[in-house]
Amino acid sequence: MRVFSASLATETNTFAPMPTGLSDFHQRGYYAAGEHPDAMQMYSGPLWAARQRGAEKNWTLLEGMVASAMPGGITTRHGYETLRDELLGDLRAALPVDMVLLGMHGAMVADGYDDCEGDLLTRVRELAGSNAVIGATLDPHCHLSEAMVAQADMLICWKEYPHTDILERALELVDLCVAYKQSGVRPVARVVDTGMISQIHTSSEPARSIVDRIQALEGHDGILSISIAHGFPWGDVPCMGTKVLVYSDARADPDGQRGHALAQRLAGELVSMRVALNPPQPEIDDALAQALSADTGPVVLADGADNSGGGAPGDSTFILRRLFELGIGNACLGPMWDPVAVRLAFMAGQGARLALRVGGKIGPVSGAPIDAVWTVKALRVDMVMTGLGGTPAPLGDCALIESAGVEVVLTTLRGQAFDVDLFTQLGCNPADRKLIIVKSSQHFYASYSKIAAQIIYVSAPGAVPHDLNTLPYRQIRRPKWPFEG
């Protein structure tokens, strides 16, 4: 069997201040056809799974381009079209193929393209033909468009948030696509829109139970796969929202009614728990007071509003400023994106004390820069943090600086906090600090929950605000909760 795999992925915050260009993909994770390394990347799960399954079955593996960029603002037309056409060229060179496996995000928006994945899948279908099986994995923070569902035979969202199941879902995708091609399985897709947008943390209730339940339902009574597309709230496109996708087997469910009924039931459950899924978050001063009153530490404060994983710059200073103004020490914060400050720290050298302007570089969503005298405590060239599913998360050259008992990890590449090795690689043990401030919405949880006495999600200013009603949506379909009841 001839199996083609490739990847093109980023998450687009249409409200974010910085565009995403071709260089962002080459900087973060670009591999030309046939050059993917011997280690899974965040969005190359299908390729990696095809290698594993193909080795067992003597497949002919045809690997195309793999490219991903840190989430950011709208992708440039040149960037998207260049990478799309490269991937399509790789597919054209591989034809004929029996199967196409793609790693995508699902919330990529480019200049002139509200639905990049729908556009890509449509073109892949035109090239591969109707007899090829086309499957893709998606980040659950996707816009599950009609075009995506129509052009693919199988779409599977990662189920966990944090996304700890990248490989598991990729293997599931490959196995279902093989069953479709070789074993007579006939997937029928049914999608139900919940009419809301929600942030679903699967590490806690009530979301934990529903994820466990849908996994128990798969493989029984003709149900092949169930995905909850959480949606990406910071993407202003018509198909934004939380949806349920169910694939049933036409042999057991010829008209798809069983799958549709299940999707409707699960969507209703999500709607009934929408308030519990989105609890209020304290603002900065209240969060700090709550953290300082805790009997034990460390207390983790999650600054999701400046989460680069949601398209924010990663250089906001709002929480850092309050630490200095309130005289709060014994704290560490990261990652703070500031290539200029990193370069100056390297010039000064480890152990140096220097006046340094930190953060606040991009605009109003970043706050004002912090001017202080800092000690350069550690420097590291080309630091790589442990990312989701053990995949690498490059941060570039990094510096650990300290002032008034507050340690800050500065990076030259944008990134969110995934693992505690963000700090430990620079000699800072966050478990010994009273406060740990991470620029992340939820992906920090898998690692930091192991050392945290308490976790507080903070409502702060930024490009990824918790209060969605502050954003000027123009394209989303309404009514939609929480904008309308």
Explain what this protein looks like in three dimensions.
The structure is a single chain. The protein is α/β, with parallel strands linked by helices and 485 residues long. The chain contains 14 helices and 17 strands. It has helices at 22-28, 45-57, 77-94, 116-128, 146-151, 166-182, 207-217, 257-272, 274-277, 284-292, 318-325, 339-348, 421-424, 445-448; strands at residues 2-9, 29-31, 60-68, 99-103, 133-138, 154-157, 187-193, 223-229, 243-249, 299-302, 331-337, 353-358, 370-386, 392-403, 406-411, 435-438, 454-457. Strands 12-13-14-15-11-16-10-17 form an eight-stranded mixed β-sheet, sandwiched between helices. A six-stranded mixed β-sheet has the order 2-3-1-4-5-6, sandwiched between helices. Helix 5 links the parallel strand 5 (133-138) and strand 6 (154-157). Helix 2 crosses helix 6 (166-182). The radius of gyration is 22 Å and the shape is globular. It starts with a strand and ends in a 28-residue tail after the last strand. The model has no long low-confidence stretch (mean pLDDT 97).
